[in-house]
Write a structure and sequence with these properties.
Blueprint lengths: L3 H10 L6 H9 L8 H12 L6 E7 L5 E9 L4 E6 L2 H4 L1 H16 L3 E6 L8 H13 L5
């Protein structure tokens, strides 16, 4: 683990050596507060798939301002949350119940929740992109 400042310094230190350009490009795509490699993979798929970039782990509140939880990838303007449900969500009953309750709170507060499973990301990720695109359009986004 490292900080983004240390990582940026290491990339700068590479100068023009082989791989430096790729490292600078990768550094530009890093976002803080990301919880998992698969969430990052999904965010990059979204960005490269022509959809707007979501906010990572945004705090979601209800109409009174009460905290409901963090949305994995959130479109605040469209009240839409993209949740990546990894295998760990299904292996432990306590984790699964926690996640179900959190998503239920989001929906009761009138947030659209799009749940993505690893199988949606198979191949080129087209199924995931289609679900997200459809959800954003239904929420008012125009390509």
């Amino acid at each position: 683990m490292t900080t983004s400042d240390r990582l940026a310094a290491a990339v700068r230190a590479r100068g023009s050596r082989p791989g430096a350009r790729s490292a600078r490009q990768a550094l530009a795509q890093i976002r803080p507060r990301t919880d998992s490699p698969r969430e990052s993979e999904l965010r990059l798929l979204i960005a490269h798939g022509g959809l707007p970039e979501p906010v990572v782990n945004a705090a979601i509140t209800d109409a009174r301002g009460a905290f409901l939880g963090f949305g994995d990838l959130t479109y605040l303007e469209y009240r839409t949350i993209v949740e990546y449900d990894g295998e760990h969500h299904f292996g432990l009953d306590a984790q699964r119940v926690h996640d179900l309750d959190r998503v239920d709170r989001f929906r009761r507060a009138e947030w659209r929740v799009i749940q993505i499973h690893r199988l949606h990301l198979a191949g080129d990720g087209a199924p995931a992109l289609a679900l997200i695109r459809e959800g954003l359009i239904a929420a008012g986004w125009r390509p």
